[in-house]
């Protein structure tokens, strides 16, 4: 006890502003349930596992720790099961997830000799007792920062239900045989509870669903409540009632009375339609989900180094799938595992290692690759009775990598591609003092665009990139005869695909080679200003690569516009071979006999280069139901390329905080810091100032302007002659042969990249392995033809 009293000055009583860690080690994934328990530093309130707490003592000198240890409780075999009352798992009233219950024990431990004192104890100094009680009663920082509730939101009673006025129209609704009053739809029908009109539901973004007649009727009449026909049964609470003014599914406490008004006897009705919630959940059983997750297959679980699952924190599968593949690359393995120990990373980290990206990447790398946490748990999977692992929760990593990012710091689903690019940017910045250690460079390559003017002169435009984003040319499908026969059969029988067995649906099959060829094929540029002709003309643009990266990432653009300008996800297979050769895609630079276009751009061109939206694009977007201002911004930010690009921009930026801000047309003076930023990108100051002037001072738009006006002026990225072009070695980019082997796939299931689910398949030790959050198993049927992102490793000669 005297030893503790002599160290009281190193004990703090937590303030409300303190971040208290007590559920997970800052350097590893040890928890109070680990064999050695968890040690909470009573000065910094950081937590450490048994193998790491001594490092903290060496670094800080803090000697007093609260030791927390969870011990499994014994469970009687005849424990009765509780009946669930809530559609949720692992919460009060929800389904019992059969998790082991634990009993917590505490003690005070003094380092370096691990002297242990019992807690609670009246013999402990009052300051220690108060400090420990405060720690134990506080909400842990881990859970405060990232709380994922896996429970359906409870429906509330509508404020319009008790005062609903029903018209005396004399309408009697039959028990079946319904049809929309304004079209031929016989499914997804809603009964307005005021006037008895039966109308179809909303049209989905992909063109399916109804024709919006029910919601249009509300806009015309303001009649607030509707019930979905086919969901009415004796269990009235399960009926799907929608409130248009509240824009949500609701409860109608007087639904029986409201139905009786139209002669409906709910007690005898049978359920024939899915509720809105059930339709959302139904995606779990569609073809994509079953195929990509290999549902129904006997997956053999696999354990050991490199086979550690990641716990889903709530819509974090995009992160899990991406990180599993990145930590299968030599560059990330060597940077954050093989060549960097946890102790070294901790010694280099600031006072709070939970805020250090290098520390948390190292922690994640060691967690995934050491095999320490990839062990079977005692309880088997309740659904499959197979051995399973708990996986590790990447909470601290997600918190630090998402810091300051409005989307990634939320609990919403995100685009795995966006996260991949965001992470590489963070990693590059984190290694800016040692670029030779930067693992993100293994994904970088140079892109060169050659523009051939009708004058015969050329310009060259270079940039660096980390992905090849590929359009999917459906016209290159290899099964056109089968597709035509299927479409004729479908039309002849009047069938819809959502009413057909997935095994009967024929989908286009497009070779990956065709997608790569489309990327490299010549493209016409209309209204191109030629400095040689001093006027607008049509130019030809071809794109090639100046270097080949160690790891090539291909992004498949599956979201397109159909003939009616309705955005949809392509239901298509991509035939991807195990080995590809992109040697033919290497650009050749300025060739003998080619003459560069003159550099200067007339001032009148600069004056007309202010950001102005193409009215035709805006009109088409507005006709699809988008806000006019949003459409103008979409057109401007995609350089008026086309409706498809603008629509993709809209879907990606709907939640931007400044989406409703007016379009900025700043004066010609530009901010010097913006100029400096563009100069740091490799552009000349003259070009940077012109671009910022033309784009209202917006750096992102200015960058786009430079790429769309490559002959604005000679800059560091322009090729003035074949001998002046920088080689990949001079730019620091990796380079080598053009043959690549497929080793990773990120697949996406769902109607949008911002919903649904992501899964990774990785080629490890000669076999494909599926990483589905915390589940890791041998893959028997990797969905090579259904990927969203494909990862290739360069084959050395």
TrEMBL record:
Zinc as UniProt keyword: yes
Coiled coil: none
Assigned protein family: Belongs to the peptidase C19 family.
Stretches assigned to the UBP-type domain: 156-266
Function as written in the Swiss-Prot or TrEMBL entry: Recognizes and hydrolyzes the peptide bond at the C-terminal Gly of ubiquitin. Involved in the processing of poly-ubiquitin precursors as well as that of ubiquitinated proteins.
GO molecular function list: cysteine-type deubiquitinase activity; zinc ion binding
Active site: 317, 757
GO aspect biological process, one term: cell communication
EC number: 3.4.19.12
Domain of life: Eukaryota
SMART domains attached to this UniProt entry: UBA, ZnF_UBP
Keywords from the named record: Hydrolase, Metal-binding, Protease, Repeat, Thiol protease, Ubl conjugation pathway, Zinc, Zinc-finger
Residues binding Zn(2+): 180, 183, 200, 213
USP domain segment(s): 308-795
Name of the molecule in the record: Ubiquitin carboxyl-terminal hydrolase
Catalytic activity as recorded in UniProt: Thiol-dependent hydrolysis of ester, thioester, amide, peptide and isopeptide bonds formed by the C-terminal Gly of ubiquitin (a 76-residue protein attached to proteins as an intracellular targeting signal)
Domain UBA per the UniProt entry, residue ranges: 612-653, 669-709
